[in-house]
Amino acid sequence: MSKILVVYYSLTGNTKFIAEAIAESINSDILELKPVKELNAEGGSKYFWGGFQATMKKKPKLREFDINPLDYDLIILGTPVWAWTYSPPIRSFLSKYDLSEKNLALWTCSQGDGVKAMNKFKETLKSTNILGEIRFQEPKQYGLEASKEKAVLWAKEILQKIQN
Ligand SMILES: Cc1cc2nc3c(=O)[nH]c(=O)nc-3n(C[C@H](O)[C@H](O)[C@H](O)COP(=O)(O)O)c2cc1C
Hints:
Layout: E1 4-8, H1 14-26, E2 29-32, H2 45-55, E3 74-82, E4 85-86, H3 88-96, E5 103-110, H4 115-125, E6 130-137, H5 139-142, H6 144-163
Parallel strand pairs: 1-2, 1-3, 3-5, 5-6
Antiparallel strand pairs: 3-4
Bound molecules: flavin mononucleotide (FMN).
């Protein structure tokens, strides 16, 4: 049996919703990245400070976790789009682990189409083993059920790829 880990960051719950849908549907482990100093999810200041962090390629210190991502055969990584790129906590995570030999699958949550951010995500990972990628637009705003269905279908496709 392949070991699968879903890793994600989420400030306002969209990426978290998708992460939980995926992990539940394929019965994987799940790891939520949490910065030691989190932004306030309410109000508009998050756009300024979050946008600043993302643009400046900041790597905020993450709270410790007791999972070793390198123990897994497949890592499914999810991030919100911040300032046309992946979020700073994901940057922190990627700087800590060399995932170049891992099977990966990637998703983003964004307000717009998220294409540019997905390209940056893939460029950073430089992995030849990206088994799938998918983008979601504001699940909480446009429909949790439809997003869940899309996430579950996608996760099952990925699972089939590593089982074959
Ligand atoms: C700091 C910040 C910057 C953002 N920048 C973008 C962006 O460049 N493009 C976009 O489509 N959405 C952008 N968004 C919207 C988020 O990507 C979107 O709301 C996403 O679903 C949030 O995921 P979460 O609820 O898991 O935190 C931004 C949101 C924040 C807080």
